[in-house]
């Protein structure tokens, strides 16, 4: 007998109503909607009254613990100058009782600022209380003198790349004891947006944490647990391989890819490029050499791991593709924000997926025109990658962008977050393409896992504003509701 019967559902791109039967977490049948409920069924029956049902959505690039914690921090994303950011911090200090715990903020983007984020700017409003502000792309931390002293940092001001990552990891470890509550709340929020799975690329060890939470009952998501080179030997010694299921987690937790960060970001001007940045004698920063990348990818191949290689600048993308080609490794290039034309077909030819975060183009539209004005036509080349044969998967890079796949889908389709015309619309995806890049398929099929999303609107034909705010009526993982408004 079936466990759940979803009646009178609509599949995307089809008009006829269907009944969807689910048993043991699998879609067992999809047939024309019957006029009435079968008399002998013992399944739970839910009449969807013509709502749309689609495969559940994935976020293929998340730093989940950071996302959970950042949701509780001070948002500085609206600041249009260092001085404005300082005013926001000063207001928080006035609103709180006097304390010496650090103020942790996030979301500042200084690429378009006319003033500099210096330690002195923060010291003027917080001379004694430590202040740490994470940049919107997470590749920099802006700290005051009190934070320098509190954490024993080499200097105050802006820390970039490895120094910034090291401080962020310390802040995670110093998070209050309700971290599990924050993560549970974030998982619930993700489920409410139709998310059924994530690739977690948290820098801190995340496998033990997810195992413990899932054994205690957190079943909101499927999780592919990624890891970094510092953890490679540990995972090899444990005998793990990418795709292995972790016992005791109901099949929801699996071993993910080896993550390698090879360059920086646009905002910090550390993305590694073939050409120098206009007006600056720098091509960015290559944080992992091609030789190191090849050595790590060879180890990944030898021990059965896929790889996720961070490459934002076009030279970093070239080096990443070279390393995949020389080693035969499989996996993804994360971001692929700037790509040379001659590198586009190499993704498909090598079987390397492009793991892209379309909402970043909303944030980086103006900085790209300012920092890469001579190459903006090659930035976020989603359609060009797909047309050249690349397999695209969408993500958010949360907390860089919100963990909400509908925002990523909308950005991939419309390439404009305001009243302006779409930015380089030749690189837009169709709605069908964007949905497939997020969910893996456009329509529910028999024999597939019952990881589903029930929608109040048709994402293929609704107005643009409804797409980005898509109302989700229910989400199911392995046939069980993780979000439900019906």
Describe what is shown at a glance.
This protein is an alpha/beta fold and 486 residues long.
CA-CA gap between termini: 23 Å
Give the helix/strand class.
alpha/beta
Q: Let me know the number of strands.
A: 21
Number of DSSP helical runs = 16
**Overall 3D form:** globular
Question: From the alpha-carbon coordinates, what is the Rg to the nearest angstrom?
Answer: 23 Å
- Provide the residue-averaged pLDDT: 94
Poorly predicted regions: none
Oligomeric organization of the protein chains: single chain
Proportion of helical residues: 25-40%
In terms of DSSP E residues, the strand content is 15-25%
Largest sheet report: 8 strands, mixed
What does this structure look like?
Strands 1, 2, 3, 4, 5, 19, 20 and 21 form an 8-stranded mixed sheet that branches. It is built from 16 helices and 21 strands. The two termini are 23 Å apart. 32% of the residues lie in helices and 23% in strands.
Give me some keywords for this one.
single chain; 486 residues; globular; eight-stranded mixed β-sheet
Task: Please describe the topology of this protein.
Layout: E1 4-11, E2 17-23, E3 26-32, E4 44-47, E5 52-55, E6 57-62, H1 64-70, E7 74-75, H2 82-95, E8 103-108, H3 119-125, E9 131-135, E10 140-143, H4 145-151, E11 157-160, H5 162-173, H6 179-191, E12 195-200, H7 207-215, E13 222-227, H8 229-237, E14 253-261, H9 290-303, E15 307-311, H10 314-327, E16 331-335, H11 344-350, E17 352-356, H12 359-371, H13 382-387, E18 392-394, H14 405-414, H15 431-439, E19 452-455, H16 464-468, E20 472-477, E21 480-484
Parallel strand pairs: 1-4, 1-5, 6-12, 7-8, 8-9, 12-13, 13-14, 14-15, 15-16, 16-17, 17-18
Antiparallel strand pairs: 1-2, 2-3, 5-19, 9-10, 10-11, 19-20, 20-21
């Amino acid at each position: 007998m079936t466990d759940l019967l979803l009646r009178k559902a609509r599949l995307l791109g089809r008009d006829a109503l269907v009944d969807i039967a689910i048993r043991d977490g699998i879609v067992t049948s999809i047939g024309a909607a019957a006029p009435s409920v079968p008399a002998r069924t013992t399944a739970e029956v839910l009449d969807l009254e013509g709502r749309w049902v689609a495969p559940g959505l994935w976020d293929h690039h998340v730093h989940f613990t950071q996302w959970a914690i950042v949701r509780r921090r001070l948002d500085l994303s609206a600041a249009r100058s260092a001085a404005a950011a300082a005013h926001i911090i000063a207001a928080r200090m006035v609103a709180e009782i006097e304390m010496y715990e650090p103020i942790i903020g996030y979301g500042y983007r200084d690429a378009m600022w006319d003033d500099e984020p210096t330690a002195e700017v923060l010291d003027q409003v917080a001379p004694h209380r430590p202040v740490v502000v994470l940049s919107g792309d997470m590749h920099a931390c802006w700290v005051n003198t009190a934070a320098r002293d509190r954490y024993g940092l080499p200097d105050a001001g802006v820390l970039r790349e490895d120094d910034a990552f090291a401080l962020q990891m310390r802040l995670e470890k110093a998070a209050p004891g309700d971290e599990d509550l924050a993560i549970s709340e974030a998982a619930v929020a993700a489920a409410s947006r139709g998310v059924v799975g994530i690739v977690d690329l948290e820098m801190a060890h995340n496998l033990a944490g997810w195992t413990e939470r899932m054994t205690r009952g957190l079943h909101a998501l499927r999780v592919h647990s990624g890891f970094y080179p510092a953890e490679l030997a540990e995972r090899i010694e444990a005998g793990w391989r990418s795709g292995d299921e972790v016992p005791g987690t109901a099949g929801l937790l699996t071993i993910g890819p080896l993550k390698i960060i090879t360059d920086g970001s646009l905002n910090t001007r550390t993305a590694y490029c073939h050409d120098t940045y206009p007006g600056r004698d720098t091509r960015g920063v290559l944080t992992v050499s091609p030789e190191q990348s090849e050595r790590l990818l060879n180890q990944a191949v030898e021990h059965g791991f896929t790889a996720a290689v961070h490459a934002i600048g076009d030279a970093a993308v070239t080096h990443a593709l070279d390393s995949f080609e020389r080693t035969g490794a499989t996996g993804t290039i994360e971001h692929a924000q700037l790509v040379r034309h001659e590198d586009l077909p190499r993704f498909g030819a090598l079987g390397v997926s492009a793991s892209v975060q379309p909402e970043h183009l909303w944030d980086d539209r103006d900085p790209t025109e300012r920092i890469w004005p001579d190459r903006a036509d090659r930035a976020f080349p989603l359609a060009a990658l797909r047309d050249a044969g690349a397999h695209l998967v969408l993500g958010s890079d949360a907390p860089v962008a919100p963990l909400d796949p509908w925002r990523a889908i909308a950005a991939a389709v419309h390439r404009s977050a305001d009243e302006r015309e779409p930015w380089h619309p030749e690189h837009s995806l169709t709605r069908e393409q964007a949905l497939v890049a997020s969910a893996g398929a456009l329509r529910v099929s028999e024999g597939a896992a019952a990881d589903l999303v029930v929608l109040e609107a048709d994402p293929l034909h609704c107005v643009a504003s409804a797409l980005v705010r898509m109302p989700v009526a229910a989400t199911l993982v392995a046939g069980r509701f993780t979000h439900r408004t019906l």
